[in-house]
């Protein structure tokens, strides 16, 4: 009887041992302090804008930080002429440009068959008359030579400024594309030296008077408010605009740039930085 009992005990022990060896070990509970998965940051969008160095590029630089907070990298590419910034946008090499007013844009589209549109007005740069050989409008001699921009809209603008000073009279004062051929009265027999706008500041000593766009005046170290003999009034129709190719008006990065350009912060910057030489138009 004892042998049978002992055998039963041994058999039970063996079964329990085999069961223990065959059991799978349960995994340890995960630590609660494991780092949580985070979403990958949104990809940065790049927006390229062609601009004249002053004041356009200077103003755009104030937009870099606010746009970066929205995941937009604003790249400002500076140009010193009035043609390439438009052809670059038309060809898709630039997303937008900021250097021109609407009369010039309209003329450019009409002449070159481009498809560029204004999406925001930003500022006005009053065009000014600057002294050359003659230091006063009252001292202009007969036959004086006046340097004016040779592109259609800026030349018309220059002639309108001269008309406002009583120096000439145009056949049609509403013609924004007037040329010297459209002058009806020229009592002092003024002569006009038609040149690329960007070159005029460098030849002021060679002419009696020079009519200069404010961006080029500023670039030459001139203050349009303090240094000009006469300047356009604040109601000038020549608002400088942000331009894109037709079809890109609703680009989200462009819309974000418009919002920043037309913000109170940019208005304050323009007023403080340029002291009347550049005037906000929004």
Please provide a written account of the structure:
With about 280 residues, this protein is of the alpha/beta class. It has 2 domains: about 45-125 and about 240-280, Periplasmic binding protein-like II (D-Maltodextrin-Binding Protein, domain 2); about 130-230, Periplasmic binding protein-like II (D-Maltodextrin-Binding Protein, domain 2, 3-Layer(aba) Sandwich). About 35% of the residues lie in helices and about 20% in strands. The protein is built from 10 helices and 13 strands. The strands form 3 sheets. Strands 2-1-3-12-4-13 form a 6-stranded mixed β-sheet, with helices on both faces. The chain is elongated and about 65 Å long. The termini are far apart. The model is unreliable at about 1-30 (pLDDT under 50).
Descriptors:
2 domains; D-Maltodextrin-Binding Protein, domain 2; about 280 residues; alpha/beta; 13 strands; six-stranded mixed β-sheet; elongated; single chain
In short, what is this structure?
With 282 residues, this protein is α/β, with parallel strands linked by helices. The chain has ten helices and 13 strands.
- CATH topology heading of the largest domain: D-Maltodextrin-Binding Protein, domain 2
Taken together, the total number of domains comes to: 2
Q: Which descriptor suits the 3D outline?
A: elongated
CATH top level label of the largest domain: Alpha Beta
- Which structural class do you get from the secondary structure elements? alpha/beta
Number of strands: 13
What is the averaged pLDDT score? 88
What is the first-to-last residue Cα distance? 111 Å
- What's the name of the CATH homologous superfamily of the largest domain? Periplasmic binding protein-like II
User: C-alpha Rg, in Å?
Assistant: 35 Å
CATH architecture of the largest domain: 3-Layer(aba) Sandwich
Helix fraction, binned, reads 25-40%
């Amino acid at each position: 009887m004892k042998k049978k009992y002992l055998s039963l005990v041994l058999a039970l022990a063996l079964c329990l041992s085999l069961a223990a060896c065959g059991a799978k070990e349960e995994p340890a509970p995960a630590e609660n302090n494991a780092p949580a998965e985070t979403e990958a940051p949104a990809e940065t969008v790049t927006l390229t804008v062609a601009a004249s160095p002053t004041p356009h590029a200077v103003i755009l630089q104030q937009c870099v930080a606010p746009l970066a907070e929205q995941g937009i990298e604003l790249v400002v590419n500076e140009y010193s002429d009035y043609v390439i910034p438009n052809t670059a946008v038309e060809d898709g090499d630039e997303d937008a440009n900021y250097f021109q007013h609407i009369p010039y844009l309209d003329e450019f589209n009409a002449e070159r068959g481009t498809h560029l549109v204004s999406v925001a007005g930003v500022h006005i740069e009053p065009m000014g008359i600057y002294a050359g050989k003659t230091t006063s409008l009252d001292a202009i001699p007969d036959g004086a030579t006046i340097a004016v921009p040779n592109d259609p809209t800026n030349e018309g603008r220059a002639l309108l400024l001269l008309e406002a000073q009583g120096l000439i009279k145009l056949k049609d004062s509403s013609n924004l594309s007037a040329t010297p051929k459209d002058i009806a009265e020229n009592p002092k027999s003024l002569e006009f030296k038609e040149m690329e706008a960007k070159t005029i500041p460098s030849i002021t000593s060679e002419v009696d008077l020079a009519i200069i766009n404010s961006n080029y005046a500023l670039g030459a170290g001139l203050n349009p408010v303090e240094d000009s003999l006469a300047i356009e009034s604040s109601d000038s129709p020549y608002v400088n605009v942000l331009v894109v190719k037709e079809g890109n008006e609703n680009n989200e990065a462009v819309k974000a740039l418009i919002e920043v350009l037309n913000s109170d912060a940019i208005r304050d910057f323009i007023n403080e930085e340029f002291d009347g030489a550049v005037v906000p138009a929004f």
